[in-house]
């Protein structure tokens, strides 16, 4: 554990990519195989199941620190991170623990099934046996949320250095559904086993956002374009008579979409499709909100299947007739995709092809982009016709060109402290719009929360305003005298019964601070509803 | 109802019987000043009374003022009220104010810490009935390590940076923290350079405390001579063009707030050292207990939370709002006006 805690400390205390990769490389060079596997698992968000819920963690930590629970909770609100709060309030003793990371994790796994008093004893014992930073890392492992600014990519790069393996091949190996409890480092990383590859997806190629003028892409003839769909990026694999559906988060989601099972008997074996999962309601693309009702569910009921059916909009073909064709130029892969689609399009499958948009010059592309909301897309995608399918986010061949977001002017009404690096500032805001009451008076009604989009300096100014203009406190939340107006941007909008305003927005964020506007100038709920696509 | 010996009004902490203010934030006639940080010692008062060690400090900061210096424990009476100053251990010359009238004793701490830092006259417990205390770090999340451990870390960090060919830039507020760092840096490792604001204040402190030699960074200072050495700068120097001269450099900050990962990350500091001139949770509680007081008034810091906890422990505790800021996340209040006034080398 000492080495792992030291690694996390180093990763956490630098913003420099090179320092991070070096620290990871050093760690992987010296860690034992079991610790290596668990480290890979933890840094790729395959955490052990949470053995104790946070309510009990708070209670037991406050007992050990000899402080009342309310005082622990207040400290937590201010510190902003549960594991950090626990590590801070519990005293450090002279005790030591030489247990390794994997020993700890394996103990945590068996702990889950133990009675409460044993869990408590285990936690108290270990909290006292670890030093401050080890205690923090240990508690992080228990609470599960391990965000320390190391992407899977950096970890893979370090591992590639240590094993002298190809980074892309490693990325491929580390994807998918493996169990850190049973897999050995040899098997996971070092062995080459083709049969393990059956379910494995290819690393996704990710597009960069187009920031310059579209003309900068050069000759329009070199580019293919299609609409950018607003669903779930997915990879659909048919191999050896089995179906695997992966989401971009490298999660195996086959069971969530039973309607795709029909692909096994209809699509040729040895096919891998890159495409978007989209809700298909009343023969047209539904909203992302519709899709959300399916994402969260473990068990997909017949009712929900009927209410929100889904389709795949296919836009690329990565494997064809059992062969990895990612090195073929895009136009060739596209030709094969169309060929495949031709063969099944009469079968009424939940499969569509993402239509190509034709344009002879950039002006026509601009006009097509303006149709995006009409066809329920987020904008356009450009793909270089002669480009291979790359790994990860690499600049140059794929560009996404998104519509400007919807925007509306809203009033800041509530604020909460941020988390992590913003825990001393009020940076999580709730915004409201005007609504007319029955008596004709106007009131502010909450419609969205947002916590990004201002500069650090602006955050400090707003924070200062909030601290001086607090009306009421509700735990970590403060209501604020309505005065500040912000332009709020969002990507999608739909009617919603679950929101007080009656409207749900997608990816709300602050576009800018409207210091030129008074609260009377803010928009109304009616203005917001007028933005909903008909 | 009997008027309390000390009351909080819109100018500061007021003793009506003596017509004297403690650390007032608006101009008054008679002001007793606990220490030199700008949220406690403001300009515009007619008469200043403070410990004599603080006299050169506030004269440096406030210019030509009418100030009287007192010794530790020296009593002076105004209209039947007896005042005396006692060491607060916060920075050089920092005092608690003891106020006695007809057998009733109040103590106002100003800012204080109980650990002996080797510079400030060590904190002394003063028995009282009512204790007016700061609680900048009045949360159980704050626990300081003995300063020797922190300085071992700082010196190890410096030596390591030097071995890697990098300059160490350590941020600490101009008055107090900067000199505390200077005092405990291991000068066998290398030379210590200073930012203008730090150098000016250090010159004021030197006659009172034995400090290692420092070199002011000026326009003529060569980049090569700084390399691998230590630079002490105010937090406000972070991210300014001034710092480019130190390239390649590594930044560190010494502050109580560095206990929080968030504080360090937000300020984009490479290394945080948890080192404060204020009490941590435990020493606040211990010093309150040691005074034998019944009533506790918390001024700046997490005062609402702290008072609520004290009430649960059986104290008659409440909060009063003041304009003191203690150690802010940006460094002690001191910083902003120091930099504006003295400019440094930016």
TrEMBL record, chain A:
PANTHER family according to UniProt: DNA LIGASE 1/3 FAMILY MEMBER, DNA LIGASE-RELATED
Keyword entries, A-Z: ATP-binding, Cell cycle, Cell division, DNA damage, DNA recombination, DNA repair, DNA replication, Ligase, Metal-binding, Nucleotide-binding
Organism of origin: Flavobacterium suaedae
InterPro entries: ATP-dep_DNA_ligase (IPR050191), ATP_dep_DNA_lig_pp_1105_fam (IPR026333), DNA_ligase_ATP-dep_C (IPR012309), DNA_ligase_ATP-dep_cent (IPR012310), DNA_ligase_ATP-dep_N (IPR012308), DNA_ligase_N_sf (IPR036599), NA-bd_OB-fold (IPR012340)
Record bears the keyword Cytoplasm: no
Catalytic activity: ATP + (deoxyribonucleotide)n-3'-hydroxyl + 5'-phospho-(deoxyribonucleotide)m = (deoxyribonucleotide)n+m + AMP + diphosphate
Record-linked Pfam families: DNA_ligase_A_C, DNA_ligase_A_M, DNA_ligase_A_N
Domain ATP-dependent DNA ligase family profile: residue ranges: 303-435
CDD domains for this protein: Adenylation_DNA_ligase_Bac1 (cd07897), OBF_DNA_ligase_Arch_LigB (cd07972)
Transmembrane regions: none
Single GO MF descriptor: ligase activity
Protein name as annotated: DNA ligase (ATP)
Entry's EC annotation: 6.5.1.1
UniProtKB/TrEMBL annotation, chain B:
Annotated segments matching region Disordered: 317-346
Domain of life: Bacteria
Molecular function GO labels: ligase activity
Keywords assigned by UniProt, alphabetized: Ligase
UniProt keyword NADP present: no
Biased segments, Basic and acidic residues type: 333-346
Entry-linked NCBIfam families: Xnuc_lig_assoc (TIGR04122)
Protein name: DNA ligase-associated DEXH box helicase
Source organism of this protein record: Flavobacterium suaedae
Lineage: Bacteria, Pseudomonadati, Bacteroidota, Flavobacteriia, Flavobacteriales
């Amino acid at each position: 554990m000492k080495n792992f805690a030291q690694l996390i400390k180093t990763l956490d205390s630098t913003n420099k990519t090179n320092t991070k990769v070096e620290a990871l490389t050093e760690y992987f060079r010296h860690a034992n195989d079991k610790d290596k596997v668990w480290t890979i698992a933890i840094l790729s968000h395959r955490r052990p199941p949470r053995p104790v819920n946070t309510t009990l963690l708070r209670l037991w930590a406050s007992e050990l620190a000899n402080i009342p629970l309310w005082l622990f909770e207040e400290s937590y609100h201010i510190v902003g991170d549960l594991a950090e709060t626990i590590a801070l309030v519990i005293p450090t003793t002279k005790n030591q623990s030489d247990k390794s990371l994997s020993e700890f994790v394996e103990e945590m796994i068996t702990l889950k099934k133990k009675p409460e008093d044993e869990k408590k004893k285990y936690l108290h014992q270990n909290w006292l046996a670890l030093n401050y930073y080890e205690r923090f890392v240990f508690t992080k492992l228990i609470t599960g949320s391990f965000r320390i600014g190391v992407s899977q990519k950096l970890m893979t790069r370090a591992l590639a250095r240590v094993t002298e393996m190809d980074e892309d091949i490693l990325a491929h190996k580390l994807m998918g559904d493996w169990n850190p409890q049973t897999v050995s480092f040899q098997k996971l990383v070092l062995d080459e086993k083709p049969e393990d590859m059956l379910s494995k997806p290819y690393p996704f190629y990710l597009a960069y956002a187009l920031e310059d003028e579209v003309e900068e892409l050069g000759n329009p003839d070199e580019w293919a374009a299609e609409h950018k769909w607003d669903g779930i990026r997915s990879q659909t694999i048919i191999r050896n008579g089995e179906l695997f559906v992966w989401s971009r988060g490298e999660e195996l989601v086959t069971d969530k979409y039973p309607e795709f099972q029909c692909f096994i008997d209809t699509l040729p074996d040895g096919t891998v499709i890159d495409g978007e999962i989209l809700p298909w309601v009343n023969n047209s693309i539904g909203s992302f909100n519709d899709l959300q009702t399916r994402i969260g569910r473990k068990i997909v009921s017949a009712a929900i299947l009927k209410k929100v059916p889904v389709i795949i909009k296919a836009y690329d073909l990565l494997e064809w007739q059992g062969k990895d064709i990612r090195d073929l130029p895009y136009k060739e892969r596209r030709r094969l995709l169309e060929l495949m689609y031709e063969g099944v399009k009469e079968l009424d499958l939940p499969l569509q092809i993402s239509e190509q948009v034709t344009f002879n010059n950039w002006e026509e592309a601009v006009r097509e982009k303006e149709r995006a909301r009409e066809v329920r897309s987020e904008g356009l995608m450009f793909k270089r016709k002669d480009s291979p399918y790359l790994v990860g986010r690499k600049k140059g061949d794929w560009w996404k060109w998104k519509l400007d977001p919807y925007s509306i002017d809203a009033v800041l009404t509530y604020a909460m402290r941020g988390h992590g690096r913003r825990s001393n500032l009020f940076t999580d805001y709730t915004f409201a719009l005007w609504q007319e009451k029955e008596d004709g008076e106007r009131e502010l009604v909450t419609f969205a929360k947002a916590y990004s989009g201002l500069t650090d300096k602006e955050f400090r100014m707003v924070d200062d305003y909030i601290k001086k203009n607090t009306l009421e406190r509700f735990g970590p939340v403060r209501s604020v005298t309505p005065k500040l107006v912000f332009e709020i941007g969002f990507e999608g909008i739909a009617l919603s019964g679950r929101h007080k305003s009656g409207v749900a927005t997608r990816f709300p964020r602050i576009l800018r601070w409207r210091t030129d506007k008074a609260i009377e100038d803010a928009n109304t709920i009616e203005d917001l509803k007028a933005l909903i696509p008909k | 109802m009997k008027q309390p010996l000390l009351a909080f009004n819109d100018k500061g902490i007021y003793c009506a019987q003596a017509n004297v203010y403690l650390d007032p934030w608006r101009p008054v006639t008679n002001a007793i000043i606990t220490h030199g940080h700008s949220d406690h010692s403001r300009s515009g008062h007619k008469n200043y009374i403070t410990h004599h060690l603080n006299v050169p400090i506030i004269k440096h900061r406030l210019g030509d003022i009418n100030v009287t210096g007192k010794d530790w424990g020296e009593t002076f009476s105004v209209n039947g009220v007896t005042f005396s100053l006692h060491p607060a251990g916060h920075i050089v010359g920092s005092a608690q104010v003891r106020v006695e009238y007809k057998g009733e004793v109040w103590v106002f701490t100003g800012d204080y810490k109980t650990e002996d830092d080797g510079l400030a006259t060590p904190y002394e417990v003063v028995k009282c009935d009512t204790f007016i205390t700061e609680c900048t770090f009045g949360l159980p999340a704050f626990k300081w390590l003995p300063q020797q451990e922190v300085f071992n870390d700082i010196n190890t960090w410096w030596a390591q940076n030097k071995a890697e060919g990098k300059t160490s830039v350590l941020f600490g507020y101009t008055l107090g923290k900067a000199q505390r760092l200077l005092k405990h840096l291991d000068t066998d490792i290398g030379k210590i350079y200073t930012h203008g604001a730090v150098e000016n204040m250090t010159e004021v402190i030197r006659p009172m405390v034995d400090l290692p030699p420092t070199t002011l960074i000026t326009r003529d200072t060569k980049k090569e001579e700084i390399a691998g050495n230590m630079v002490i700068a105010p937090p406000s120097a972070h991210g300014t063009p001034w710092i480019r001269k130190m390239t390649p450099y590594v930044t560190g900050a010494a502050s109580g707030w560095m206990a929080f990962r968030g504080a360090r990350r937000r300020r984009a500091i490479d290394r945080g050292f948890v080192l404060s001139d204020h009490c941590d949770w435990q020493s606040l509680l211990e010093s309150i207990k040691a005074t034998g007081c019944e009533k506790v008034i918390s001024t700046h810091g997490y005062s609402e939370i702290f008072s609520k906890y004290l009430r649960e422990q059986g104290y008659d505790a409440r909060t009063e709002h003041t304009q003191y800021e203690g150690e802010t996340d940006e460094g002690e209040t001191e910083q902003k006006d120091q930099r504006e006034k003295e400019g440094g080398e930016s």
